[in-house]
Design a protein that fits this description.
The complex is a heterodimer of chains A (about 400) and B (about 150). With about 400 residues, chain A is α+β, with helices and mostly antiparallel strands. In chain A, strands 3, 4, 5, 6, 7, 8, 9, 10, 16, 17, 18, 19 and 20 form a 13-stranded antiparallel β-sheet that branches. Chain B starts with a strand and ends in a 14-residue tail after the last strand. Classes of the chains: A alpha+beta (about 400), B alpha+beta (about 150). The structure holds iron/sulfur cluster (2 copies). One iron/sulfur cluster binds next to helix 3 of chain B.
Chain lengths: ~400, ~150
């Protein structure tokens, strides 16, 4: 670790950002720069690489405080546009989870269900400045006598609202196929029988955690682009697993690292927080995240310089294996191959489709780049990085 | 040359009337049968891709209509709410005709309405309700959107 030729600190880079002198590029641009200059020169030249991703991220939600009513209420049940928010937090605090469907939703009774409105849509409505209908009920106490409370509220009427997503930004993910004999409706989209189509969900070379595969710079306190506003990494996400198999370049070959993130809803935009309805599966939220990666040394330049062709994605069967929790990956393909629109699995040509928007991911990385260049967005130094494992080095 | 997809509905009284060949014979229209089915209530449905000069296409369709064939122009049936589309691409793997496709390397999703056969698949696949369709007729594809 000590033999690096280039050594920079986050504080030094922040100084440059303040002076408007930092060199900031997107992870897409960094690929060419590293290739052309080599990692050492690239690390000398570039200070920050911006990343982005915009995909469906379950395990998202928002804490909302709707303010004290007169008379006071200690809500035990809370509904927003008839979507239940968890009220067992405090008197007027609740947590609206992205995956919660509306009360009267037919779910999968008529299969496949459409899940047209849920917690993710409530969050989108709030951020878009639209009014939501709040209904709270309570059992009544001496200090909180009211038993019911109703109001039409916009986000600005809530005392506090912040997005708190326990698991976002999966470092890599499965490519899903269906080896069974019938069409299935999954969180990885609609999969036709006999391995006829393959869906994948990652922004690949632009993806935040794939650009810092050992989380050297990412951890609690990392300042990020979140839902169009500013947010923070608050720790490893649930199911964070640095121990997943890696290829020689250190890049994980399956779902591995995750982050928990948080940010003030009141600065976010419905362009980057979109309620999602996944046919046959449920409701969710599409979240836009961008993480700036400080190029502290040539190793970071090399990590951020990886391209889609160097990222391996496991192909998993969602017909039998995944639901049963059995079996391993059928094979690995690269993200570069997936992006062409066709891959070969077991000798068969299969149509591929992304679920996560690459063009929006690029827009996020570009926006973050502009923010940093303008000097108004400084890097947040991680107080503790995410749990990781040792990197043996590139072996050359 | 213009190309468009139409759905022809033949009620049982005209089902076996030889009409389609006249499109090429009288109007110089190249047609390509995308799918055809006879429904249980003895109604024939044919999805056709028509290619020809614009005025000839119009005349051909008018000819069919005069012969009591119901002609549905599929490009009127499906549209995309541009504001709702996030260009994720989820619909592109399921669209049977390539009407929805990704433009590389930017990975933006384009919708070519003239290639659409109004199967409704994208309506099911899109998580954001960006693909709208009018539910007018019985589907050929499984899982057609039902409101
Ligand atoms: S309805 Fe949608 S999926 Fe079907 S052909 Fe048209 S665009 Fe493609
Ligand atoms: S699935 Fe919907 S949002 Fe995604 S590209 Fe297709 S139309 Fe656009």
């Amino acid at each position: 670790m000590s033999q690096f030729k280039v050594k920079k600190t986050v504080a030094e880079i922040n100084e440059k950002i303040k002076q408007g002198q930092a060199v900031v590029v997107t992870a897409e641009e960094m690929i060419g720069i590293t290739k052309e200059l080599g990692p050492v020169q690239a690390a000398r030249k570039v200070d920050v690489v911006t990343t982005g991703t915009f995909g469906i991220m379950c395990s998202s939600g928002a804490f909302l405080n709707f303010g004290h009513a007169k008379p006071r209420i200690k809500a035990s049940r809370v509904y927003l546009n008839r979507v239940e928010a968890y009220a067992g937090v405090a008197a007027v605090d609740c947590y609206i989870g992205a995956a919660q469907p509306r009360e009267d939703d037919p779910l999968n009774k008529v299969f496949p269900g459409r899940f047209r409105y849920g917690g993710g849509h409530v969050i989108e409505d709030l951020v878009a400045g639209r009014e939501v209908h709040l209904e709270a009920t309570a059992y009544g106490t001496d200090c909180y006598p009211s038993r019911s409370h109703e109001a039409r509220m916009k986000l600005k009427d809530f005392r506090d609202g912040f997005l708190f997503n326990p698991r976002n930004g999966y470092q890599n993910y499965n490519c899903a196929v269906n080896l069974s004999k019938k069409t299935i409706y999954t969180y990885m989209g609609i999969l036709r029988p006999d391995c006829s189509n393959a869906n994948y969900s990652t922004s690949g070379q632009l993806s935040p955690l794939l650009n810092d595969p050992f989380y050297r710079t990412i951890g609690i306190g990392t300042r990020i682009f979140l839902g169009g506003g500013i947010g923070y990494v608050v720790g490893p996400g649930t199911q964070h697993d640095p121990g997943v198999k890696r290829s020689e370049n250190g890049v994980v070959m399956g779902g591995a690292g995750t982050i928990a993130v948080m940010g003030n809803l009141k600065g976010m935009s419905s362009k980057f927080l979109r309620g999602a309805s996944i046919t046959g599966y449920g409701c969710s939220l599409n979240v836009g995240i961008g993480i700036p990666i400080p190029i502290l040394d040539e190793e970071m330049a090399r990590f951020t310089g990886i391209s889609d062709d160097e990222i391996f994605v496991p192909v998993a069967d969602y017909g039998y294996d995944y639901p049963e929790g059995s079996g391993g990956p059928l094979t690995h393909v690269t993200y570069g191959q997936l992006k062409t629109g066709e891959v070969t699995i077991d000798g068969k040509k299969v149509t591929t489709a992304p679920l996560s928007s690459y063009s929006a991911a690029l827009e996020i990385a570009e926006t973050l780049k502009d923010w940093i260049r303008s000097g108004k967005f400084l890097l947040g130094e991680a107080q503790e990085t995410l749990p990781s494992i040792a990197f043996e080095g590139f072996g050359d | 040359m213009k190309s468009e997809n139409v759905l022809l509905i033949f009620r049982s009284n005209i089902m076996y009337k030889p009409l389609i060949y006249r499109l090429s014979k009288d109007f110089d229209i190249i047609f390509n049968i995308l799918e055809a089915k006879i429904l249980p209530r003895r109604e024939g449905r044919i999805l056709l891709e028509l290619r020809g000069e614009e005025d000839q296409l119009l005349k051909g369709v008018t000819f069919l209509e005069e012969n009591r064939v119901v002609v549905e122009h599929l490009s009127d049936k499906v549209w995309r709410e541009e504001d709702l589309c996030v260009h994720c691409g989820a619909c592109t793997g399921l669209c049977p005709t390539g009407a929805l496709s990704l433009v590389r390397p930017k990975m933006e999703v384009v919708f070519d309405v003239n290639k659409c056969v109004a199967c409704g698949m994208c309506g099911l696949a899109c998580p954001f309700g960006a693909m709208k369709d009018i539910t007018l007729f019985d589907p050929f594809a499984e899982g057609r959107t039902v409101n």
